Amino acid sequence: MYTKxxxxxxxxxxACVKLVTxxxxxxxxxxxVEVSLERAEASVAASKMPSLLELNHAVAQFSDxxxxxxxxxxxxxxxxxxxxxxxxxxxxxxxMLITLLxxxxxxLTNDSHVMNVMSDFMAFFFIIFAGFKIANLKNxxxxxxRYDLLAAKSRIxxxxxxxxxxxxxLLFLFKVQxxxxxxxxxxxxxxxxxxxxxxxxxxxxxxxxxxxxxFKLPMSKVALFEDVSMVVMAxxxxxxxx
Length: 242
Hints:
By secondary structure, the protein is of the alpha+beta class.
């Protein structure tokens, strides 16, 4: 049995540690792996020590940022936990854009009624996020099925989900079938919220199905906030609709 310590670059958080550990354990002959985020190192035990090429090929399947180096040939920078802004910047910017579009539409139409403002916000939310999902339709269904309860059982639902969101967005935008759209939102986003809660409880390392194809974004409580906020707004829409 051989044991060797390698330097690992590109890790940023505990999720990275789990991914690198999982990747290295898939390499032939490797029996044990211990990864340290603080030291940016991985201790690998193997019956036959794999080459750097094999190790790098394994970690590259999860992210091109991960690199394995011979210890002493690469000085890893001191690890600092990324800020909330640096991690979730894409989501924050998208929410700011949705808010701006909602505000501009209210000004242009001179309509600040709370029901219409909420409807416009939900419309832009669904349309924009549906656009990301459709653009990554090749990879989205598999990623979505890792935590969504319905998508895990039905690939048809997983593939259709972006188009369901797009339809809901258009219904809210044009104020058509508002009651149906609100009920559908509660159903779809409610199931999504339950799936996210289950994944968070299990501490699963899952990339965000929506934006993960474009940004290195982990699924987290932010995804839960998105689902729950849409459910709450849909309930508010039904209450105002009556």
